[in-house]
Amino acid sequence: MVEDGFRKKADAAPIVELSGVISLIGRFPALAGLDLTINDGEIVVLRGPNGAGKTTLLRLCAGLAPLNDGVGRIMDLDLGDRVQRRRIRRQAGMLSQQTFLYDELTVEENLQFWATANRADPEAIEPVLDRLDLGRRLRTVKVSGLSTGQRRRASLAVMVCRRPKLWLLDEPHAGLDRAGRDFVDDLVGHAVRFGATVLIASHDVERAEELATRTVQMAGGRVLVDTNTRGESDRQEDLDAS
Amino acid sequence: MLRDAWLMAVKDLRIEFATRVVTGQILPFGALVLILFGFSISPDLTVVGTDRRSMLAQAAPGLFWVTVLLAALLALGRAFAVESADGNLDALKMAGLDPAGIFLGKVAAVAVQLLLLEVVLGLGAFLLYATPLHDPVMLLTTVILATAGITAAGTLYAALASGLRVRDTLVPLLVLPVLAPVLLAAGLATQAAVFGSADNGWLWTALLGVFALIYLAVGMLAFGLIMEES
Question: ipTM score of the complex?
């Protein structure tokens, strides 16, 4: 199903266009001349060792990490322009190692706050809570009282309420049981069928590649290998050269 | 902007209601400071040139505002600790809330908590230091304007330090010198309100108002930039 969605959008406009991008964390170039283009409706999995720049790439696409050099356009908006970067942030949704939730509030209070803050439809909250199995016992539980997997699901619930055009998922399967991981995969497929584009950084290679329409191997803040699901390598750079 | 301010203020007050940090920790801290000030100045000492007014009562306005400033530092640190935890500042950026609205919401939430503290600590000061009350309207005006100034300036500097690892020690270093004019003006205005002294208390309250307006305006303009750099 996801594959069909991808094929339909094969000629779609690029959602992510990065050329020679450098992004510094302090003085360290977390992205060091990265080139990447992602088209509408793709599910791209980022692979690479720790420190390869996967999380920084996701944060850059969310408009959170700085664009210090190069050209970056997300959803046809310029990452280098402060006003346009704010518009990018509103249209991107990010699931990261951090939950983006207030520990002191209940699941329901968190969802109500973030849905209102994101100008999401308040009526979307109830079905999302039910769909993520947060509707009965857990809705009145403070986030500080949730397990890691339950927190992950609560973060996902906020993201689903936002209905972002660009989904940026950093280790979305981490901390989830098998059912939870299956659920994330279903959610990603569903999002793409409804017009979203998905970028996933994951160490759960098998599961992530089942989802992917493309796999991008990163190291040293650059793209090394860019492969579509049929295993054809579009670009290979010499590891030593990077 | 006002919608975003309301949303932030209600959220922050809801977090305070859930955790009760102000009522359970900051308020007892303030009460302890007031009591310790009472121990440090003998109630038998009187001020020359007054009708046997005790030194403690004479110093009460200044002691009260120093206590409020110390309590405010804790409340301000807390206001940004909840945003630094778990990347919530990033989530606020992604939600596209108006930065001026976020600033005003934070100021409003801290101000409500601080006003609650001031009411309780003020009653404590009147009882402990046996302070009279000459002009309640001036006192109320002073409390409101000083609170606005403390929270506006404090929120701005607490936000500046929020992204730093040393924020807990940096915030007092940044905020206390900036709030020195508020301490001076609020102390003298309160003195005029409680003793009916010759000083024109309304001039000092006007200064408090100007200070609050300046920092509210600067905060609303600068908060977006501060959030970007955090």
Answer: 0.81
